[in-house]
Amino acid sequence: MKYVVVLGDGMADRPLEELNNKTPLEYAVTPVMDELAAKGEIGMVHTIPDGMKPGSDTANLSVLGYDPQKYYSGRSPLEALSIGVAMKDTDIALRCNIVTLSEEEDVYEEKTIIDHSSDEIPTEEAAILIDAVRKELENEIYKLYVGTSYRHLLIWDKGEVIDLVQPHDVLGQTIGQHLPQDAALREMMKKSYDILVNHPVNVERKKKGLRPANSCWFWGAGTKPALSSFEEKTGKSGAMISAVDLLKGIAVGSDMKVIEVEGANGGLHTNYEGKAQAAIDVLTKDGYDFVYVHVEAPDEMGHQGSIEKKVQSIELLDQRLIRVIKEGLDASGEDYRMIVLPDHPTPICIRTHSSESVPYVLYDSTNIQNNTWKYNEAEAQASGNSIAKGHELIDYFLSK
Q1: Which of 187, 222, 257 is the endpoint of a domain?
Q2: Which of 221, 205, 243, 208 is nearest to 128 (CA)?
Q3: By C-alpha distance, which of 393, 389, 374, 365 is closest to 42?
Q4: Beta partners for 337?
Q5: 302 and 317 assigned to the same domain
Q6: Is the pLDDT of residue 11 over 90?
Q7: What's the burial of 50, exposed, middle or buried (CB within 10 Å: 0-12/13-18/19+)?
Q8: Within a 13 Å sphere around the CA of 135, how many CA atoms are in the beta-carbon half?
Q9: Across-strand partners of 387?
Q10: Are 307 and 273 in contact (CB under 8 A)?
């Protein structure tokens, strides 16, 4: 038996008046996911433990079977694993977004955060900007490392885990009250704006009608992680396919194989077919038991507040990734189980993560069902199937 998890990051949502009181998942045309639902099982799973912040870090740990209350040490340390940074026990890792702030105000604290991703800036451009900040601000205490797109890393030697605001939680707000209390971090953010606001990369971006990446934003502080081996925990050899450092870091920390797919970028127009074929190959040619395919686009579109693009991201996931995986595995003759789900909701109405349970669909090629339901939040809720602790989902999934 082969096992596939397809994770549509932030895919779950709330009913929207603009979609006739349907969610984007309910409104989207998703014939493949609906077929899996009709022939399989649907239900709800609670991926965010009570009292923990909803995020892709805690939620994806849950889906992979790692109880966040036991294993979570912060988001950025997981990303550090992917980037290849060897953290010391005394290091603190922080995410460094390069964000778009308004430029009309003279005082930094009076600026507004417009975009947490700077129009999903390409890694090549972001690397130039991070290098410019590094040359001016890096020292023996603070080290910057390039990640992917807008997602980068700051290592703070002998630092402390402090509460920092996630930029996607305060979009459209004046930033003053959301800046770090730590004076050094706050001053680095202010200086980064001075370095980046007129940088040639941003001058060119504005000429093209793109948002400038004009400030660093620090958040997600954490300590060196210690995950157990996925194979030792489950008895299954596992592989990870994702464009984002967080998921690749979780894979590195749990000794899963990390598969790089050319053109996979964490955006709406990622290489869906490439990810799908990589998943098929690692199971049927490389002999792995389990593959986790993560797609970031629905989450990004939720943060952007774009109903149209979120619906589109779900339809692309259905047609260009899930369909290809299903057809490929069917053709291979392998018995397989596939589960499709979000990690958490990213509701359009709030443009950030929330903690509600999420819908899953579980399909087993050896146990075809005959149901009338489709895959969406409402029907999954109505099914009566529910898993209260997200980290127990993986054992249920791998039990056959």
Answers
A1: 222
A2: 205
A3: 374
A4: 3, 364
A5: yes
A6: yes
A7: exposed
A8: 7
A9: 45
A10: no
Contact (Cβ atoms closer than 8 angstroms) between residue 236 and residue 172: no
Q: What is the band of 33 on the pLDDT scale with cuts at 50, 70, 90?
A: very high
Tens-place pLDDT, residues 338-388: 999 999 999 999 999 999 999 999 999 999 999 999 999 999 999 999 999
217/232 same-domain check: no
**Rounded Cα–Cα distance for residues 98 and 217 (Å):** 6
**Claim to verify: residue 252 and residue 190 sit in the same structural domain:** no
The residue whose two tokens read 């075809």 is: 368
Rounded CA separation 248/159 (Å): 24
Number of domains present in the structure of the chain: 2
For residue 49, what is the domain's CATH number?
A: 3.40.720.10
Residues 112 and 172 in one domain: yes
Is residue 5 within 8 Å of residue 337, measured between CB atoms?
no
> If pLDDT is split at 50, 70 and 90, which confidence band does 231 have?
very high
- pTM, two decimal places: 0.86
User: Does residue 78 lie in a domain region?
Assistant: no
pLDDT value at position 329? 98
Q: Is the pLDDT of residue 75 over 90?
A: no
Distance CA 321, CA 218 (A): 33
User: CA 158 to CA 187: how far, in whole Å?
Assistant: 18
Angle of CA points 108, 173, 20, to nearest 5°: 155
Distance CA 33, CA 243 (A): 22
Among residues 376, 340, 344, 337, the alpha carbon closest in space to that of 358 is found at 344
The span from the CA of 33 to the CA of 284, in Å, is 22
C-alpha to C-alpha distance for 180 and 186, rounded to whole angstroms: 5
Q: Which of 201, 222, 243 is the last residue of a domain?
A: 222
- Please give the helix or strand (H or E) that residue 152 lies within, else none: strand 151-157
